[in-house]
Structure prediction request, 243 residues.
Amino acid sequence: MTSIVASEAEHFGSLAADWWDPRGSSAMLHRLNPVRLGYIREAIDHHWGIDDAERRPLAGRSALDVGCGAGLLAEPLARMGARVTGVDAAPENIAAAKDHAAGQQLAIDYRAGELDALGLGRFDLVTCMEVIEHVADPGAFVAALAAHLAPGGLMIVSTPNRSAASKLLLVEAAERLGRVPRGTHDWSKFVTPDELGALLADAGLAVVDCRGLMPMPGRGLVLGENKALNYLMTITHAAGQGE
Prediction:
């Protein structure tokens, strides 16, 4: 079974040339990225007991970014010292990612296609940002993520919540006002924290932290307890699983 929805891949592939423009169609991702990176770095340091002053906390470790787009997260992971593999459903995104990484002199292994069909093995860190709401079968997709997480590994997932607030602000207002390209979101496919937690548990994974991501006047996007719009999860193998 494929997790790729062809229309979704085509939509995001059509944005590939603009992906690295902070004022272009991916502007919201550029705003999200620093906050997500802060959360990811905190989770890395806590999970592996790394000093927050360490400049390359992922040195000697492998990382897989699923739904990598043109590399907004994969490149910082590489700068943290990881051996990074990026996977995306859209070949156009992978082409843009390879081109940008080459310009930055970063060695990242980018692959286009279905995650389960690529034979990539397991990774110390698996990240998946704003992807699960775009796949055909969320349960099968989460199981595929779990299959790529090495024993003792760390997973970070972010996704919009399915709430009245997200329908109003992330779909209707954001797309109508041009903050995100039209057709980016299907609110009915958003996943609540409880639903995602259940899918993760079915795959032998455990949620160890969950925080919301919200806009705050004068502060931009901030992490907190309010998960109504978007949330991030830190995940590990459940006890006795994944060994």
The longest strand covers residues 149-160. Residues 148 and 236 are 12 Å apart (CA to CA).
